């Protein structure tokens, strides 16, 4: 463990020293995330918009399966379900922005499962 300043030089240029751990500093200053993280955040955002649209379509479909879940049958329950969808989207975007870019693959898998289940419900196959 070495003490370096935030610009990479040793403690002599008037910059405050920070302890580096694998490219990150103990003070929480992270290097600017690159093109990959920006692309992953954009990708997750687009998938989140699609998830919201699908979720809304399933809610408005009036499928009999929705009436079997008592809390989901009410207007309040539907709003809570959309809020939970938003929280999943927000958590995924925040985690990617804070150094977990591979989480985009997990969110893609989640979106694929949502898409398949939404398609099954909307087409009346279940």
Structure description:
The chain is mostly helical. The chain folds into 2 domains: 1-31, no CATH class; 35-122, no CATH class. 58% of the residues lie in helices and 8% in strands. The chain contains 4 helices and 3 strands. The protein has helices at 35-60, 64-67, 75-97, 103-122, and strands spanning 3-5, 17-21, 24-25. The protein has a 3-stranded antiparallel β-sheet with strand order 1-2-3, with no helix packed on it. A hairpin with a 2-residue loop joins strand 2 (17-21) and strand 3 (24-25). The termini are far apart.
Distance between the termini: 58 Å
Q: Report the principal-axis shape.
A: elongated
Residue-averaged pLDDT, rounded? 81
Biggest sheet layout = 3 strands, antiparallel
Percentage of β-strand residues: 5-15%
Count the DSSP helices. Answer: 4
Low-confidence stretches: 1-5
Labels describing this entry:
126 residues; mainly alpha; three-stranded antiparallel β-sheet; 4 helices; elongated
Put the structure in a nutshell.
The chain is mainly α and 126 residues long. It contains four helices and three strands.
SSE arrangement:
Layout: E1 3-5, E2 17-21, E3 24-25, H1 35-60, H2 64-67, H3 75-97, H4 103-122
Antiparallel strand pairs: 1-2, 2-3
């Amino acid at each position: 463990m070495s003490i370096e300043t935030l610009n990479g030089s040793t403690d002599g240029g008037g910059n405050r020293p920070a302890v580096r751990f694998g490219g990150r500093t103990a003070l929480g200053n992270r290097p600017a995330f690159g093109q990959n993280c920006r692309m992953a955040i954009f990708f997750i955002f687009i998938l989140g918009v699609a998830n919201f649209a699908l979720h809304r379509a399933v809610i408005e479909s009036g499928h009999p399966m929705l009436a079997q879940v008592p809390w989901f049958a009410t207007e309040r329950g539907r709003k809570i379900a959309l809020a939970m969808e938003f929280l999943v989207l927000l958590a995924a975007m925040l985690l990617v922005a804070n150094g977990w870019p591979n989480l985009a693959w997990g969110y893609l898998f989640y979106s694929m499962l949502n898409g398949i289940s939404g398609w099954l419900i909307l087409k009346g196959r279940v």
